[in-house]
Amino acid sequence: MDNMFLIIGVSAILVAAASFAIYKFAKLGKEKQTEMILEWLLLAVVQAEKELGGGTGQIKLRFVYDLFTNKFKVISRFMSFAQFSLLVDIALDRMKEMLDTNKELERYISGEVQKS
């Protein structure tokens, strides 16, 4: 029974923190929210490319979608898979542009560069 107050207190703090984070994100506006999601998706598609390699498009899309639903639980409930796929396509275009100009990124994805 002594721990009940501690559990309730910690739960209340976690709910308040999550609510505040959702409120701040919602307050940003749709354009800024989309840009933040695109920046995160860029990281996710680079990770998928590194881990799964070429020729695995649908598997990579599913991999990124699973990462997305874990990271953005609330948003993923309101976004259709078609909308998500369009955002992934934009992130993939950005990654391709970066690969053309950044050889270190290309080396990282190919596994030539190890994380330090």
Task: Explain this structure.
The protein is mostly helical. The protein has one domain. Helices cover 85% and strands 0% of the residues. The protein contains six helices and no strands. α2 (30-52) crosses α3 (57-71), α2 crosses α5 (81-101) and α5 (81-101) crosses α6. The longest helix is centred in the N-terminal third of the chain and has 26 residues, at 2-27. The chain is elongated, with a radius of gyration of 18 Å.
Order of helices and strands: HHHHHH
Instruction: Determine the strand fraction and express it as a percent band.
Output: under 5%
User: Runs with pLDDT <50, length 5+?
Assistant: none
* pLDDT averaged over residues: 83
Cα shape: elongated
- How many beta-strand elements? 0
Integer tally of domains = 1
Structural classification: mainly alpha
* Structure annotation, total helices: 6
Computed over alpha carbons, the radius of gyration is: 18 Å
**Amino- and carboxy-terminal Cα gap:** 46 Å
Helix content: over 70%
Summarize the biggest pleated sheet.
Answer: none
